[in-house]
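Hey, resending since the last one bounced:
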Amino acid sequence: MAAIYLIRHGQASFGKADYDQLSEKGSQQAEILGQFWQNLPAPDKYYSGDLLRHSQTAEHFFSGLQHPSTVITHSGLNELDHIDVLTRYNSEWQDCQKISEKIAKMPEANKVFQHEFSQAMFRWISGDFDDEYIESWQQFKQRCVKTLKEIINQQVQTSQSATSAKNIVIFTSGGPISAIIQDILALSDQQALTVCQQLVNTGVTKLLFSQQNLSLDYLNNYSHLTLKGDEWQTYR
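The structure tokens again:
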């Protein structure tokens, strides 16, 4: 069977004016993963969402791997619009940097943010307010699963040719990964949200596929970071 490796992007710039770029640590996380991958089977093909944090993760991954390659971009691999989700829950999130700075001054700031984000996500996935969002939870899930199936179908169609890929790497985000895992394992929406909350930056999820089957091999492997120390394990 062929393999697809779903890689969550490195740590982004949460609380900054532009979240969609890697922090210094996020860049290093991606490079560490690339170095680690030197001992694994070389990928045959690369895909990426078209967000900046996806392309930067790929760039620093290749720096560590020391083997640059072409990346196929696909907007279907993009993350949910977290600003839209937060703003529909609380309009103050329209200025993400301002409210982030406000929360940062509070006791147990991480818990306060996690509560805010969880409540916003619960509202989104409830389905009760779908017409308010740019992309509903159901539309988001369908988009992510459809994109993965398109990539798989492309490989299945060329499975007998010299261009067939046996190891595919996809640089994406936690939302698409959890939506795909939900579809494979038939999880509830709440379980999918729990999976999303546990995904580590640059964590690797491996899928196995053939013409007839798609299965999960492992989820959220971040051993490349564990080897470097606990401080490398981040979630944003």
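The chain is about 45% helix and 15% strand.

Sorry for the duplicate.
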